[in-house]
Amino acid sequence: MRGAAFVMEAARPAPVANAEDPKHGRAPAAPVEFATSSGNARIVSLLEGDDLARWQKAFAGHVKDHRYHRITAETLSGQFDHRYLFLENSATGEVAMQQLFFVKQDLTAGMPGKLRALLNWPRKIFPGWLSLRMLMLGCSASEGSLDSTAPWAVDALTDALAAFARSSKVSIVLLKDYPSKYRDALKPLLSRGYSRAPSMPACGLALDFASFEEFLQKRVSYSFRKNLRRKFKKLTEHPPLTLEVVTDISGVIDEIHPLYVQTFARSELRFEELTKDFLLRISREMADCARFFLWRQNGKIVAFALCIIHGDTIHDLNVGLDYAVALDLHLYFVTWRDVVEWALDNGLKRYYTAPLNYDPKFHLRMELAPLDLYAWHTSRLINPIFKIALRFLQPVRHDKTIQKFPNAHEL
Questions:
Q1: SS3 per residue for the chain
Q2: β-pair type (350-353, 313-321)
Q3: CA-CA distances (angstroms) from residue 340 to 110, 183, 361, 391?
Q4: pTM reported for the whole predicted model
Q5: Would you place residue 399 in the very low, low, confident or very high pLDDT band (cuts 50, 70, 90)?
């Protein structure tokens, strides 16, 4: 699968009533404030006034800026309970911002079936066994980002997370899916009781070839190249596929969202489920960088992909396939080929894709892009035990294909 954010347990969370969602009959949660080593921290559930103005400066220069984070919070409200964190440096006047959310997670869901069954037997007596309410830092529909990597901001962030976790009575704080480039900046967390563990990694590929044919000739193995050509040749037995790349999906949303739902339902590892509103708002509010690839057969859309262009990189985020024809048409490989060819035609230099489905990515000679989890149990007595358990609760440990990648040691 191309396109979803996944965490340690890689399980779909139980629905959470968002404090700012009118459907659940709840008013926005009251803002809370905490003192940090650098100044004040303020946490709100609704952006308005000065908070909204400041949030519109968050994650400047990132692939997913303030718009993506806000769209996620406001369109996945039935799945997560989101908050916005503002950190202030009283000495310099600087402000750093982050997104938080609450979720209830099954700690065993990313483990092999036999081991999961062994650990889950106490649920016959204790239904909530190994299922904990967590406070997560990051984006519920993507990997995490730091608005500021300045030491004061990281120290203040750690202070605020500890205070908010205890006031919210959560057991675990988790920094979700942070790229390995943040390891130096987040190193201070390790001395504050956090453990770092590998999450399911993303993948990337340098587009340093002139054409897809050159890629096949020089990069992939003979057997896999032969297999791909056989798949593409079989396409001639079916009505042709056509590709259109658009920014506005308002006229086709009712066609493409069911394709996403089909693909989501087939994934064994799930976290967030994207909504129609999410896709529409990405289309409307991020038209400068979001591109929707639409594949049609006989006029009917049979596949789509959501990508974001940032600098010289295309980020392949989410895909939806019509499984009535997807296997016969080998749509996974067709869509991947066409996205890469479009990127080459438009002068892009790198391809980046979300976690999971590692076997084809391994054969397509992608490299892993490590993502990290930082976890902390709020109990001083339990945290040492939790650190040990974390080594076994990570699904990366149980995925044999991941270990075949040449840079697997970087995880």
A1: CCCCCCCCCCCCCCCCCCCCCHHHCCCCCCCEEEECCCCEEEEECCCCHHHHHHHCCCCCCCCCCHHHHHHHHHHCCCCCEEEEEEEECCCCCCEEEEEEEEEEEECCCCCCHHHHHHHHHHHHCCCCCCEEEEEEECCCCCCCCCCCCCHHHHHHHHHHHHHHHHHHCCCEEEEEEEEHHHHHHHHHHHHHCCEEEECCCEEEEECCCCCHHHHHHHCCCHHHHHHHHHHHHHHHHCCCEEEEEECCCCCCHHHHHHHHHHHHHHCCCCCCCCCHHHHHHHHHHCCCCEEEEEEEECCEEEEEEEEEEECCEEEEEEEEECCCCCCCCCHHHHHHHHHHHHHHHCCCCEEEECCCCHHHHHHCCCEEECEEEEEEECCCCCHHHHHHHHHHHCHHHHCCCHHHCCCHHHC
A2: parallel
A3: 30, 30, 13, 36
A4: 0.89
A5: confident
- Domain parsing of the chain, residue ranges: 22-201+371-410, 203-368
pLDDT tens-place string over residues 113-165: 665 565 556 556 655 556 678 999 999 999 999 999 999 999 999 999 999 99
CATH topology match: 22-201+371-410 vs 203-368 = yes
Residue 110 and residue 115: Cα distance in Å, rounded?
10
pLDDT at residue 9, as a whole number: 38
- Is 203-368 assigned to CATH 1.10.760.10? no
CATH for 22-201+371-410? 3.40.630
